[in-house]
Write the structure tokens for this entry.
Amino acid sequence: MDYKAQLLQRIENRSARVGIIGLGYVGLPLAVEFAKAGFKVLGFDVSKGRVAQVNRGESYIGDVKTEHLAEVVKSGHFEATDDFARLTDSDAVSICVPTPLRKTRDPDVSYIISATEQVRKYLHKGVLIVLESTTYPGTTDELMQPALAETGLKVGEDYFLAFSPERVDPGNPRFQTKNTPKVVGGTTPACLEVAGALYRTTIDQVVPVSSTRAAEMVKILENTFRAINIGLVNELAIICDKLKIDVWEVIEAASTKPFGYMPFYPGPGLGGHCIPIDPHYLAWKLKSVNYNARFIELASEINTAMPNYVVQKVTDALNSVERSVRGSNVLVLGAAYKKDISDVRESPALDVIKLLQERGANVAYSDPYVPDLHEEGIDLASVPWEGRLAEYDCVVIVTDHRAFDFSRVAQEARLIVDTRNATRGHAGLNVVRL
């Protein structure tokens, strides 16, 4: 039987059933887009709470509006389950599970391995499997394909295997799943053809590449580029500070060059699910071929040290008004890793809070998007800031949320350490910037 032709036909007429493993920041938006395109979608997640929320039509992801989720659930195009035996009902399966780092900075691919085992257990002829989780080049053909080959089915004929890196940017008002170009690499030409056909039904632009390894490397390149350039500008901030130069003025002037320059901005460190993590996947992989990724290691060293640099700026600022860190009341504005979202994954604000607490400061934080923090030993609830800034010896700005009126912050706070240049343009000798 020609399983490729059969699956292509089912994709074209929307009779193909799509399974999404992992209903987080990547999986849930993708599932909703496939459902809106007319497919019957079954979402898989180990969290019974998430499964129940999805089936009630309640979104827990900021980029997915509850009304949009409720609409596709009510229409019968989307449901969720924790029963992986139902993978036998799927014609295409997208794996969107986390890929964190271990404490040793080695890749933790246990979620991919677990998902692959579930797929292997229920693998059947005529199904497309796509890995979307960010990982090191070679994961699809070195880890997934051998496991699936144990079933006796032949890739490219009996089933199809591809890699397509997620490109989710939480809170981005312009680019979401549908209008962000989708890179796709197949294990075989037939795998690429089938995977490309599936995504073209839902994504505005599909970008085919020659292999799964190339597709895996694309995502690593994108985030390594950002990590290294952020590391560069963070070091530039330290250099400018030592030379008594305003780094923000330098960046603003350099940004007027219409060619050969792209602005990056310093901050308290790296956060999120990609930039602090993905480059380490490549660095780890390269050790297997006896190569040291020096740019990646150096950028990581600089970016990882930024929370300590911020805390040193707080210490110096308090010393300038004859206060010690120990016993001082410090308010951190912002907890999420970027503005106007609730995502605290790898947020440098967490490191800043912990470091201040270790030095004896009485730390509070304010973030309307993050009502409470129970991360890495931190147990705090967000506090209101309006009309309360006089209670604090120092305010540390670690995000540029639109929820904060920074002109008022500059007027009301006694002392400000500004890591995001949020108060730029507002008068005040009490503002200390990176």
Q: What stands out?
A: The radius of gyration is 24 Å. The longest strand covers residues 17-21. The chain has a mean pLDDT of 94. Residues 212-242 form the longest helix (31 residues).
